[in-house]
Amino acid sequence: MARVGVVIPTYNRPEFLEQAIKSVFAQSRLPDELIILDDNTESVENEKIVCKYSQEFPFVRYIKNEVRLGVVDNYRKAFKVSSAEYLKILSDDDILHPDALSVAEKILDENPDCTVVGSPRIMIDGRLRFLKLLSFRTFGKLEGKMLIRESLERAGNLLGEFSSIVFRKDEADIDCFEFNGFNIRANADWYLWMWLASRGKVFYYDKPLVLFRYTEFNDQADLKVFLAGIQEKFFFITDRDFHKHLGVEFPEQLQVKAVGRLLPEIEKLRKDIESFPSFSELKESCQNLKHSFFSWLDKLPELTDFNYHPSVSVIIVTFNSENIIAGCLSSLVSELRKEDEIIIVDNNSEDKTVEVVKKFASNSPVSIKVLKMNENEGYSRAINRGAEVSKGDVLIFLNPDTLVTSGMVDRLVSALYEEDGIGAVGPLSVNVSYTQHISMFAPIFEYFFSGKDFLDCRETISRFLGLLFRNKTFDTKLLIGMCIAVNRDVFKMVGGLDENLFLGMDDFEFSWRLRESGYKLKIVPSVFVYHFGHLSFKTLPEKEGKSYQVQAVKQLWEKLIDYYGFGNVPTIDTLWGLDRKRFPVNFPQKKYNFMFRFSGIKKSREWYLNGAKLLKERPEIAVVVVSYFSSEDISHLLVSLKNSSYSLKVFIVDNSDSDEEFEKLFNVAVEIFGVENVKRCRPGEEENGTVVLIRNKNTGFAGGVNTGVRAAVRLGIPYVWILNPDTAVVRDTAFELLKTSVYTGVPVVTCEIRSMADPAKVQYNGYRVDLNGLMDRAFYVKEVSHLSGSNIFCRTDVFEKVGFMREDYFLYFEDDEFLNRLKAHGIRPVYTPYTFILHKGGSTTGGFLKAPSSMYYFIRNFLYYGKQVEGLPFNTLFHQLFEFYRRFSYSKDMLRSIIEAVRDYGLGITGKKEFPFSVSFEKDDVDIEALASLSLDFQIEELRRFLLNKPRKKDKFLELLRLVEIKRSAYDRA
């Protein structure tokens, strides 16, 4: 009978060590030896624990190191001290299932071809609570080398930690902490079982046999070890000698895909290093990882099995390109065959471009034709002239400020003929907008490469992409003009490029026209072309270049209007699949403000005539302002409303619950509008007057808005304008918002918000809010992705259709939730940049996230909104929440607000919260353990008590998050 042994290396976790030892003594098959290797030379705590059991269990050996060896050497020692034939190395914080040893012994006895036994393992926390089950999908006897390959492909340790396996000790004749001078720490367990698997088969048992403990303090959570783990994984995946050592083939194409799977870990590492300056010493290790990545890229092979047959004509339009054209041609000629051709169409360059091309052509193995234009006829016309004189079956339009890479022509042409109906294809690049940027397909380069790296390493990038995306293409609605391949017959059928577009927007128009003609557009991610970026534009005077661009946009907009009709042009994201935030082209004239179709309404000339008639009638607009002790701020708003070019009715809903504050508001309104124009009332009472001050109980922002809107509805007012009290409007804002709503047919609109302190600073641009300021690059009417409650213009019938704002939110995220409901009812609010309001920001709550009350409502409703509306998983929400916790760790009051918000979310508490909240830190005279076992609510409450007293206890806060997740998951299922 084989001897079975367990070795436990330990250092300084005596409370966990005792649990691990007890799990060994609880085995249905006791080991023949249990060895504890104590690396703590300064403490006797571990020894005391072992001595408690050594007399009862004579197979126990305790070895205390004379000098501290460290984790790696202590584990190395574990392999040497055991005389067992079947060995388990058990981490001092893990726990064995009672049958772990008997099951493994039986399997190894009955399967002499198996070298290692593994099983699923249960991840637990420091207090023995279930976190998750970790399991490989296949059970039984597995081919060892097959498992090694799959593990490398998935870039992950499939069998798990040392504690999760039992192995034949005589087969473990390696040092799993080193290979050919490369040190291994974080993944030594992975290396060990891969070596064992290379010597035989692996048996994977179908039930968990070990509890694997995970805490934020263990090795896996240490950032240095995490970085080492990534380096080791990269080594395992890419080192050919390592693969040979394991007896497996792991070709470069599989390596590329596996390296791509490391991206989430690399991204986490990058964020952690950026977030914590104390980790700056790791930057050298990161540079080593980057160096390893570059070295591996350099060794990737070329793909040589592409073999296209159609002839190719590459058409390059030049203008003052003498400094760049030779480089472009040098990179290109080796990619073409003798029967292919290059056509240079020079747009009357003023430099030596033509001379440079002719000199290059004299020694070129590929035919180069030069077509010299007598004047600059623009890009589109030049391309068409080149196409007219070309002979190739495939036309490739290439910018002169590009450098092509190996395989470019082969792969583009192959993709063009991949299936019927493909009109054009294009590569990946840098210095391009939108979907063809390399970061969209291989973001790993964003983390390792700077700008010049892309230029210097373009060939290695090409090899990586060729292996990663071999024979793959992706649908797109837009191909960027720096490099497009198109079938000659297709190009001729659709009429070539639009010659009305002198410079710019030709690729947008051509892509649109190809798709309207029934052709598909494809991105070929296996192709990389380096693009310097708009060097042709830079040869023009700045004013002239901008003029051409503006004119091109106008020409394209006019063409789209002729095709679809004014007001019926599909939006930019529909036409070209673009993120509108990134669309860089400004509208040249306000004439085009309302050309797009934002609603389901088909617009005609009659539509706009009726809209103009309605605007002339000047329908009534009610401004709704919710005030909470805002008498010091509201005067700016009231003055601006009085000075508006549009006559407005104003409802001020006072949520302060204060007689004194109500009187202050009244006096401010009277001072500005006159006593005869200001009325006071309670909700539902007589509400006529230019300014109506409504005495409301504090129902939060949403409740106050609803009170004001209901007052407007009762008076038959068709439009409401919701504004914060710390805002001010410009003279024509009301009319511009009304006009936007009327002409787009969208009943909910908003506009730009600027800082009151610095009006040049934009706080809201239709996509997000940032009180510190942001850019509004998309300067045109567009759909919003975020709606700010400080400025919403709305038809009142919308509330009848979608319902009022949710009052249980009380403060924050009620506008986001309202936007979601609007979209669910087919209403997609739009934003106009052609007017704005001014905003102070956060005055009613002491400033955004600057007061405990602000923090409380933000965190609580962030959780409700994120889970109920966005459907985000708890781990995503809690990861973001923990970032808030760390960011505000300097303030106990802010941490207490976060803690209280988490607890209230867990218990389903909504609505108003009394501030300051308090809690007794006295323990109730009850049986804590008994209650805790019965009541999850009780455990949450106990943690809340503890944290409100000691809010910086991070481990307790994480425990609170875990309990709240369990509570809310049960609530959601119910």
UniProtKB/TrEMBL annotation:
<dbReference type="InterPro" id="IPR029044">
    <property type="entry name" value="Nucleotide-diphossugar_trans"/>
</dbReference>
<feature type="domain" description="Glycosyltransferase 2-like">
    <location>
        <begin position="6"/>
        <end position="135"/>
    </location>
</feature>
<comment type="similarity">
    <text>Belongs to the glycosyltransferase 2 family.</text>
</comment>
<dbReference type="GO" id="GO:0016757">
    <property type="term" value="F:glycosyltransferase activity"/>
</dbReference>
<protein>
    <recommendedName>
        <fullName>Glycosyltransferase 2-like domain-containing protein</fullName>
    </recommendedName>
</protein>
<keyword id="KW-0328">Glycosyltransferase</keyword>
<keyword id="KW-0808">Transferase</keyword>
<dbReference type="InterPro" id="IPR001173">
    <property type="entry name" value="Glyco_trans_2-like"/>
</dbReference>
<feature type="domain" description="Glycosyltransferase 2-like">
    <location>
        <begin position="313"/>
        <end position="433"/>
    </location>
</feature>
<dbReference type="Pfam" id="PF00535">
    <property type="entry name" value="Glycos_transf_2"/>
</dbReference>
